[in-house]
Amino acid sequence: MRAPTVTGKVMAILGAFLPGDVRLTLTEICRRAELPLATGHRLIGELVEGGFLERLPDGSYRVGMLLWRLGAQAAEPRELRELALPYMEDLYATTRENVQLAVLHDDRALYLERLRGPTSVPIVSRVAGELPLHATGVGKVLLAFAGPETVERVLAGELTAHAPNTVVDPVRLRAELEEVRRTGVACTQEEMSLGTCSVAVPVRGAGDRVVAALSLVAWRHNADLRRLVPAVLSAARALSRDLAAVERRGAP
Length: 252
Prior knowledge:
Blueprint: H1 6-15, H2 26-33, H3 37-49, E1 53-55, E2 61-63, H4 65-71, H5 75-95, E3 98-105, E4 108-115, E5 130-132, H6 137-144, H7 148-156, H8 170-183, E6 186-189, E7 196-204, E8 210-219, H9 225-250
Antiparallel strand pairs: 1-2, 3-4, 3-8, 4-5, 6-7, 7-8
Helix pairs in contact: 1-2, 2-3, 5-9, 6-8
């Protein structure tokens, strides 16, 4: 077995932040990267000096501005996010609820953008963060329209409970995915966090291919689904038309 190179160790350190954690301690980074503390401390120090990581006053670390700027240049997510933002802003102005855009990445929901206001329910999602497919509205949409191999892999994996109503039974989850495919809408109530509900729908590109999911997350006790479902459906359909047109123009 080949010893890890310096490049491999650096990639492991940066990869420690991929689950979406904003701040990590030295110990947490080294544990995830499987590095000795002394090695991790030296390499992390160099990454801080280079602007790839930032050391906070409490001694923890977060992604640095330089790494964030590099990541923001990733072509496909940036283009989708920029195209979606006007529709997300209109949807927020109409509902005053959390608006989220996510894509499928490594069997998880990767959040490309999130809009919220002072009265919006607190949520755990973060831009560039990832959450499980089975416990989120966007995740259920993405999973429902994913390939069969992805669906079977997720259903056969660990379905962790995150809140009182998280669906952890593969049989029940499979039935819910079939309903999402039929209706084009996924609704959740307290599956990822307490006090919340969500409405999520697919965003489609050329050829009717599902490329993302758009959602609203609101307080469970006062959400009016009769108002929220049509609003998010309308925004997703408009975005899908624009996205399909852009993809067709870019096709050879």
